[in-house]
Design a protein that fits this description.
Elements: E1 4-9, E2 17-22, E3 25-28, E4 35-36, H1 37-41, E5 47-56, E6 59-66, E7 76-79, H2 80-86, H3 89-107, E8 119-120, E9 127-128, E10 135-136, E11 141-150, E12 153-158, E13 170-173, H4 180-192, E14 195-207, E15 212-223, E16 235-240, H5 253-266
Parallel strand pairs: 2-6, 11-15
Antiparallel strand pairs: 1-5, 2-3, 2-4, 3-7, 5-6, 8-9, 9-10, 11-12, 11-13, 12-16, 14-15
Length: 275
């Protein structure tokens, strides 16, 4: 049984536990990120919205989305990426969901069409404008991520935004009107200048930075020399599977794509994609 189970909860009901969120950071103390809900709400907090998230170990969990962080004795703010790298996997799933709902709540306080204050629809994960009837649901941005290979070599690249020294797979957002398959070929061509073939879908992963759905692929090199896209790619190289550079975090789908191919080349059991 999964410890974390997302579901709609009525925020008008009392009790439960709560997480406090602001811009992909969570309030935490020595016991973690879950606080008694009624107690925390009694503090002087800049609350934007409250949402019922689901159940963790059978307990009801709620979200307090804040307009700014606040200081509390014995507590500190920790980033979602810190929990991804260091925390418990089930807690990260909970916080991943919480940050996506919190981001949606903070970005849809007002109607984008008429400016009216949006209202949460009871029993539904949606925001509603009573003036123009516009509704907004939590946003998902489909993105492709792909490992391009050539025999024992994998094509990895660095963005200027990466942690120093780390190389990863290529990725990009799906544009309006294009298929994911077309997006893969286009992004690879734009970012590193090569053509691909034999595209294979391997799996997907929700990526809450802030609201992507990563669709993972493996592709074989077809033709072309590496030509890096200015301002997007800092470095791109072919690496032998026996001599890889520092790689992304093990819970990421980028790392999974690399680990699957290395396992295939070396005859090892294939890893399972983190949930």
């Amino acid at each position: 049984m999964q410890r974390w189970q997302p579901t709609l909860l009525d925020s008008q009901l009392p009790g439960g536990w709560v997480v406090a969120h602001f811009k992909q950071h969570f309030l935490a103390d020595s016991n973690g990120v879950l606080f008694p809900r009624e107690w925390l709400k009694q503090q002087d907090l800049p609350i934007v919205a409250e949402h019922g998230l689901g159940h963790f170990d059978g307990d009801a969990i709620y979200l307090l989305e804040l307009s700014q962080p606040f200081d509390m004795q014995g507590c500190a703010w920790q980033s979602l990426r810190q929990f991804m790298l260091q925390g418990d996997a089930d807690t990260f799933k909970l916080l991943s969901y919480a940050t996506q709902i919190g981001t949606w709540a903070s970005q849809h306080r007002f109607c984008g069409s008429c400016g009216e204050t949006m209202q949460h629809i009871p029993g539904e994960r949606a925001m509603h404008c009573v003036r123009c009837e516009l509704q907004h649901y939590p946003r998902l941005s489909p993105s492709m991520i792909v490992l391009v290979t050539r025999g024992d070599e994998v094509l990895l690249a660095r963005s200027p935004r990466f942690v120093s020294g780390v190389y990863s797979t290529l990725a990009g957002f799906v544009e309006a009107g294009e298929s994911v398959e077309h997006c893969v070929a286009r992004e690879v061509r734009e970012e590193v200048g090569v053509e691909i073939k034999n595209l294979q879908y391997l799996g997907s992963q929700g990526w809450p930075f802030p609201h992507s759905l990563m669709l993972g692929f493996h592709a074989e090199y077809d033709s072309g020399d590496i030509v890096m896209q200015a301002d997007e790619i800092e470095d791109a190289q072919w690496f032998n599977v026996h001599d890889l550079p520092p790689l992304p975090a093990t819970r990421s789908i980028a790392r999974h794509l690399i680990d699957v191919y290395v396992a295939r080349r070396l005859g090892h059991p294939e890893p399972v994609l983190p949930g």
